[in-house]
Amino acid sequence: MRCSPSCGTRFPDVTAADLDRWRTEATLNAARSTVRSGISFREPGVLLRVSPEAKRRRDQHAASQPSTTTTQPTPDERLREHLSRVIAEAKKTGKPEVTPIRHRITYKLTVLPNRPGAKAGSLLRCWLPFPQAYRQQKDVRLIRSSPSDGTVAASGRPGARLDGPFTGAAQRTVYFEQKIADPGKR
């Protein structure tokens, strides 16, 4: 019997009999399908809250594992570390904007074949969200696209300064259009 990935790490020795017993005891909501029977993604957490046996088996398994000296920081620990750096740099420099972070966003849009209304030669139009440029978010640009003729909407109102408060529309987009060559292909 195979259970979800999170279950496998907590209960490597779980058996079909264990799952059936826990279901019978009504400690879990069973996730059944015609292909396989297992426990759903959320059930391990529920199981640990309601089943003393599951908690005991998890703790026994954890105690039997060799301890690792290097552990990955949790997302909360990484955030605290980042905020500590930001606060220290702001105090040191006296500037409101410190320790910049660069982001790269990738979109992939797939139009399924044989969509209603898709005919050879018809025009497909697409608008995707695109980040605004303003004081805290600078150097926003479209690096590349396919098709390569994407049109990015203007940021802010004409003549607006990037160092001032945000003055543009709440949403900005990049626009693409392409003729459909074969409506049966992606």
How would you sum up this structure, described in words?
With 186 residues, the protein is an alpha+beta fold. It folds into three domains: 5-64, no CATH class; 74-101; 104-186, no CATH class. The protein is built from five helices and five strands; from the N terminus they run ααββαααβββ. The protein has helices spanning 5-10, 16-24, 43-50, 52-64, 75-93, and strands spanning 31-32, 37-38, 123-129, 151-152, 173-179. The strands form two sheets. The protein has a three-stranded antiparallel beta sheet, with no helix packed on it. A hairpin with a 4-residue loop joins strand 1 and strand 2. The longest helix is centred in the middle third of the chain and has 19 residues, at 75-93. Mean pLDDT is 74; it is low at 1-9 and 27-37.
Short description:
The protein is α+β, with helices and mostly antiparallel strands and 186 residues long.
Instruction: Please estimate the helix content.
Output: 25-40%
Spatial gap, N to C terminus: 38 Å
N-to-C SSE string, H for helix and E for strand: HHEEHHHEEE
The assigned structural class equals alpha+beta
Main sheet record: 3 strands, antiparallel
* Overall number of structural domains: 3
Topology:
Blueprint: H1 5-10, H2 16-24, E1 31-32, E2 37-38, H3 43-50, H4 52-64, H5 75-93, E3 123-129, E4 151-152, E5 173-179
Antiparallel strand pairs: 1-2, 3-5, 4-5
